[in-house]
């Protein structure tokens, strides 16, 4: 088969390195692991869908004033158009992980594509057809809610897609590309929304601009996605397809000490990045920085994050140093967070603020896809969607808690001559110090207490070179694994 030729040279190299004692049946088995060009279409489709859903999420945030005028509501209600994505994702996360591991990748993605399209169309049609101002906001909110229902179906998929369609030496970079398409969509919304909706009358054009790609992507998903997995597996773990049942997988994760440490500490990192993205403009305006400069810093945060994630994904694919990469980058992210909490309090330091935002994104965003792969490695044979989904839930819950606490710690300033915030001027000094301290604490906990074996890689190695077929070992509890590592 032509599509399987691209890994033939690699297979021959690996076969030449196999010791003479390995049976010929194992060499034949190794040759059966083919990859298909179709995997790049599946990856592209997931990237487009992830990017489109992110643009629906933040369509109105960059043009909140114009949106409020068009919908005839206050700014608080406009903010709910974005917050609904966070609230809907938390209760639906477990259902989504069940769908991915039980129903399959194809049905999950197609359902996500249809919900994403219907949400985008309902927003546009509600604004275009309904002339009653009071009815516009409810219809737009319903459209946003449909988009929010699609988000977990899409954002949980990269790890599962990479495991089913890509070989072990391409999984990390495939996961990285698919995961980073979400912040790319955020960046596009931040740039395109202000360009399109310069006045409230252009909000209709804005919603149309985001609805058209959603319809095209839904058509591509429905017609082009023909199966959840390729005809032949790309790796030994994909061939086995021996994920634990959903409920049993949840129980195993809750007994896995390494996974719990990763879920808590990396969830804290997700929360810190969410707070940074959400509160950036409010933090910087106190020291006289304009909204335009805050937008530039947000763009640098995302762009450098995508660059860092791509570079780290390539490195990890070649070295398989998941633990080392995560620990180093999480530590550097904590230092960048502390640096931002200090620099953001200084007026007229645009270069320093922009540089720190770039570093925070470069080290912080690059952790996400690698940590998701690490979650699969330390929890195998639990399903990929289940292990990565619980981490996402941890991040969403901690994000909500952090936002509440940080805003409660702000203090109204009596006088701030440099402020560009308007009437409400809040001091973010204490909240930012607390954020930096909490992030640093969980980074230290991760560096000191996270230890694990790469269970999926070990199973694949055994299946490829060993005499026994791949099996589904039950991940040890934290105490059992810790005892084995101490003995070793």
UniProtKB/TrEMBL annotation:
<dbReference type="InterPro" id="IPR020846">
    <property type="entry name" value="MFS_dom"/>
</dbReference>
<protein>
    <recommendedName>
        <fullName>Major facilitator superfamily (MFS) profile domain-containing protein</fullName>
    </recommendedName>
</protein>
<feature type="compositionally biased region" description="Basic and acidic residues">
    <location>
        <begin position="478"/>
        <end position="488"/>
    </location>
</feature>
<feature type="transmembrane region" description="Helical">
    <location>
        <begin position="40"/>
        <end position="60"/>
    </location>
</feature>
<feature type="transmembrane region" description="Helical">
    <location>
        <begin position="258"/>
        <end position="280"/>
    </location>
</feature>
<feature type="transmembrane region" description="Helical">
    <location>
        <begin position="208"/>
        <end position="225"/>
    </location>
</feature>
<feature type="domain" description="Major facilitator superfamily (MFS) profile">
    <location>
        <begin position="39"/>
        <end position="455"/>
    </location>
</feature>
<dbReference type="InterPro" id="IPR036259">
    <property type="entry name" value="MFS_trans_sf"/>
</dbReference>
<feature type="transmembrane region" description="Helical">
    <location>
        <begin position="80"/>
        <end position="100"/>
    </location>
</feature>
<keyword id="KW-0472">Membrane</keyword>
<feature type="transmembrane region" description="Helical">
    <location>
        <begin position="137"/>
        <end position="156"/>
    </location>
</feature>
<keyword id="KW-0812">Transmembrane</keyword>
<feature type="transmembrane region" description="Helical">
    <location>
        <begin position="388"/>
        <end position="410"/>
    </location>
</feature>
<keyword id="KW-1133">Transmembrane helix</keyword>
<feature type="transmembrane region" description="Helical">
    <location>
        <begin position="107"/>
        <end position="125"/>
    </location>
</feature>
<feature type="transmembrane region" description="Helical">
    <location>
        <begin position="328"/>
        <end position="346"/>
    </location>
</feature>
<dbReference type="GO" id="GO:0016020">
    <property type="term" value="C:membrane"/>
</dbReference>
<feature type="transmembrane region" description="Helical">
    <location>
        <begin position="352"/>
        <end position="376"/>
    </location>
</feature>
<feature type="region of interest" description="Disordered">
    <location>
        <begin position="468"/>
        <end position="488"/>
    </location>
</feature>
<dbReference type="InterPro" id="IPR011701">
    <property type="entry name" value="MFS"/>
</dbReference>
<feature type="transmembrane region" description="Helical">
    <location>
        <begin position="430"/>
        <end position="450"/>
    </location>
</feature>
<dbReference type="Pfam" id="PF07690">
    <property type="entry name" value="MFS_1"/>
</dbReference>
<feature type="transmembrane region" description="Helical">
    <location>
        <begin position="292"/>
        <end position="316"/>
    </location>
</feature>
<feature type="transmembrane region" description="Helical">
    <location>
        <begin position="177"/>
        <end position="196"/>
    </location>
</feature>
<dbReference type="GO" id="GO:0022857">
    <property type="term" value="F:transmembrane transporter activity"/>
</dbReference>
<dbReference type="InterPro" id="IPR049680">
    <property type="entry name" value="FLVCR1-2_SLC49-like"/>
</dbReference>
């Amino acid at each position: 088969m032509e599509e399987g030729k691209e890994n033939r040279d690699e297979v021959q190299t690996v076969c030449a390195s196999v010791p003479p004692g390995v049976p010929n049946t194992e060499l034949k088995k190794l040759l059966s692991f083919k990859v298909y060009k179709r995997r790049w279409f599946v990856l592209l489709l997931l990237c487009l869908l992830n990017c489109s859903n992110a643009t629906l999420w933040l369509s109105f945030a960059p043009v909140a004033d114009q949106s409020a005028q068009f919908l005839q509501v206050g700014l608080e209600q406009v903010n709910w158009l974005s917050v609904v994505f966070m609230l809907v994702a938390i209760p639906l996360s477990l259902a989504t992980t069940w769908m991915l591991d039980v129903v399959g990748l194809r049905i999950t993605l197609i359902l996500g594509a249809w919900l994403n399209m219907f949400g985008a169309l309902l927003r546009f049609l509600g604004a275009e057809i309904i002339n009653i101002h009071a009815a516009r906001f409810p219809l737009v909110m319903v459209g946003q809610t449909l988009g929010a229902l699609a988000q977990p179906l899409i954002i949980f998929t990269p790890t599962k897609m990479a495991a089913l369609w890509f070989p072990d030496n391409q999984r990390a970079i495939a996961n990285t590309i698919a995961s980073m398409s979400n912040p790319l969509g955020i960046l596009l919304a931040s740039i395109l929304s202000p360009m399109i909706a310069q006045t409230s009358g252009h909000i209709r054009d804005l919603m149309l601009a985001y609805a058209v790609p959603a319809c095209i992507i839904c058509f591509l998903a429905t017609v082009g996605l023909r199966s959840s997995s390729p005809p032949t597996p790309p790796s030994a773990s994909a061939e086995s397809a021996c994920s634990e049942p959903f409920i049993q997988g949840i129980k195993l994760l809750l007994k896995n000490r390494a996974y719990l440490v990763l879920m808590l500490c990396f969830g804290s990192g997700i929360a810190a990045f969410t707070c940074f993205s959400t509160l950036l403009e409010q933090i910087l305006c106190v020291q006289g920085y304009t909204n335009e400069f805050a937008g530039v810093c947000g763009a640098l945060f995302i762009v450098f994050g995508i660059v860092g994630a791509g570079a780290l994904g390539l490195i990890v694919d070649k070295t398989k140093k998941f633990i080392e990469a995560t620990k180093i980058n999480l530590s550097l992210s904590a230092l960048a967070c502390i640096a931002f909490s200090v620099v953001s309090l200084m007026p007229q330091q645009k270069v320093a603020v922009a540089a720190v935002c770039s570093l925070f994104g470069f080290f912080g965003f690059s952790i996400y896809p690698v940590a998701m792969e690490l979650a699969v490695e330390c929890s195998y044979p639990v399903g990929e969607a289940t292990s990565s989904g619980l981490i996402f839930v941890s991040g969403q819950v901690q994000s909500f808690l952090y936002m509440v606490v940080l805003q409660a710690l702000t203090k109204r300033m009596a006088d701030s001559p440099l402020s560009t915030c308007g009437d409400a001027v809040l001091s973010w000094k204490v909240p930012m110090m607390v954020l930096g301290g909490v992030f640093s604490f969980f980074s230290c906990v991760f560096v000191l207490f996270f230890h694990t074996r790469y269970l999926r890689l070990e199973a694949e190695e055994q299946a490829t070179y060993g005499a026994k077929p791949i099996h589904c070992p039950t991940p040890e509890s934290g105490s059992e694994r810790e005892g084995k590592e101490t003995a070793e």
